[in-house]
Design brief:
8 strands; 3-stranded antiparallel β-sheet; 492 residues; alpha/beta; elongated
């Protein structure tokens, strides 16, 4: 830790070093100069931050009294601590205040509180870490920071930052400024995707210290894992409910294109995401004359359509076109036997039924399917399976009849596919939360999910401004404890 004079001399020395690099006649490669400059600029920034902290500490000499929450404090001295910044870790003198006449009360850190240093880190560093973590795993985040800044926070510090900033993400999303250039057609779509959660057994193994040598390998090879039964998966997926709200704008060919897309997601439940979507839709003008048409698109999950009737009953419903076509392909394979070797008849049949669907002739498609079911014998090789496929498709189309008016939707220039939400769930959840070997605890998965919503909504700069305006932002002493997916079962 340097005093003010020493810190100022350090700044001048680094400035001279940088000038010597660029203000010389000898030929140098741009690569060499830029490499040296980057390291030098980080050193200069660290020296200037040290001067800044020395100046601020001088404002709190021993004996200074100040008021806080109705109590009188007095600076009784201080301590040396390290503060993490985007330039370096810097040793600073931190004044300590005590309540006058009541030494047993908790102490106060007046300079740390005034400067806003949660957990002895600057907010720009914390937000930088928090921006990387929803885009990549925690280990690569630290590696990138070390390459970029020359140092990186400890793994536990990274988790503390994610926990603290992730907790602020949803409040920010709920109050973010709504788009001003919405069109008069509102589109709402919902889907879900699972993220692997950690079990108590896996958590116990990961909490154990790593063994050196090949002792662990020998033990593992001597006790192979128990084989999982049919349908049993190791990932123990927790479903993330994802919703998208946007408006439709038409291109030069009259085709609808989404604009002002906003993503909202939670691991709580589908109902929770519908509550959130309804809140955001109202903020954007739902229930007023702003929107002449509201459309809701989803796959065939009953829970989604039940919630649509509860939260968006007046919306124009649409069953995703690709899900309907997939049912046609399954039925076509049941009708056109031998389609593995003779695919042409299958493709002709599917094309014909798909054309009827697009023309709004669902009854004709149902009649074709019913005729095929009636002429398929109840006995015979594979007939039980074929009859089940045809029966399931007929029931599926009949149940969703009111949501399959594709001719009407196309005339109104609305969308008939859920490609928007399909791509969103893959990008939002799959690419970050469903990677190889990943196992999440509930709270941290939710924090990263919300942070990723902020990133994909293109609102990170506004989020940083929001965080800077928040008072009392702090980092917990320890990361949030991991809650395994079977914790409730164990408690029971």
């Amino acid at each position: 830790m340097k005093n003010i004079a020493e810190a100022r001399d350090e700044v001048h020395r680094h400035v001279k070093d940088l000038l010597r690099v660029v203000d010389r006649e000898e030929p140098l490669s741009a690569t060499h100069v830029e490499t040296v400059l980057w390291s030098g600029v980080l050193l200069l920034g660290g020296a200037m931050m040290a001067l800044f902290f020395a100046r601020q500490a001088a404002r709190w000499p021993a004996g200074t009294q100040y008021e806080l929450r109705g109590l009188t404090y007095e600076v009784e001295g201080g301590e040396t601590v390290e503060v993490g910044t985007k330039f370096a870790k810097i040793a600073i003198w931190r004044p300590v205040g005590r309540v006058v006449g009541r030494v047993r009360l908790p102490r106060d850190l007046p300079m740390t509180r005034a400067l806003g240093l949660p957990g002895n880190f600057t907010l720009p560093l914390i937000t930088l870490v928090a921006k990387f973590t929803p885009m990549m795993a925690f280990l690569p985040t630290r590696q990138i920071l070390r390459d970029l800044l020359g140092w990186a926070p400890a793994p536990r510090s990274v988790l503390r930052m994610v926990d603290a900033i992730g907790k602020e993400a949803r409040p920010f999303l709920e109050q973010a400024v709504v788009p001003e250039d919405d069109t008069d057609v509102l589109l709402i779509t919902v889907d879900g995707k699972g993220a692997p959660t950690i079990s108590s057994g896996e958590y116990g193994k990961r909490a154990q210290p790593h063994k050196k040598g090949r002792v662990g390998h020998a033990k593992k090879s001597g006790s192979p894992k128990k084989r999982r039964g049919p349908g049993k998966k190791s990932k123990n997926a927790k479903m993330a409910a994802v919703g998208v709200i946007c408006t439709l704008r038409y291109d030069a060919h009259g085709r609808p294109r989404p604009v002002n897309k906003r993503i909202y997601a939670t691991f709580a439940s589908y109902r929770a995401v519908f509550v959130w979507l309804k809140q955001e839709a109202v903020r954007r003008g739902l229930g007023t004359e702003k929107f002449r048409k509201v459309q809701f698109v989803a796959d065939g999950a009953d829970v989604l359509w039940d919630l649509q009737q509860e939260f968006f009953p007046t919306a124009e419903p649409c069953l995703d076109w690709m899900h309907a076509v997939e049912k046609l392909w399954s039925s076509g394979k049941a009708i056109n036997r031998g389609s593995r070797t003779k695919r042409a008849p299958l493709e002709v049949w599917v094309h014909a039924q798909r054309t009827l669907l697009r023309q709004g002739k669902l009854e004709d498609v149902l009649a074709t399917l019913q005729s095929a079911l009636d002429t398929t014998s109840a006995t015979g090789p594979g007939n039980k399976y074929r009859r089940k496929v045809l029966s399931d498709t007929i029931n599926y189309f009949t149940k969703n009849k009111v949501r399959m008016r594709y001719d009407r939707l196309r005339r109104q220039k609305l969308v008939i596919g859920s490609g928007l939400i399909e791509g969103t769930v893959r990008h939002l959840v799959g690419m970050r939360l469903d990677g190889p070997g990943m196992r999440w605890g509930k709270a941290r998965a939710e924090a990263v999910l919300h942070l990723r919503c902020v990133v994909l909504n293109g609102s990170w700069n506004d989020f940083e401004t929001y965080l800077a305006s928040r008072e009392g932002l702090c980092l917990a002493a320890q990361p949030i404890a991991t809650v395994t997916h079977d914790a409730v079962k164990q408690a029971a």
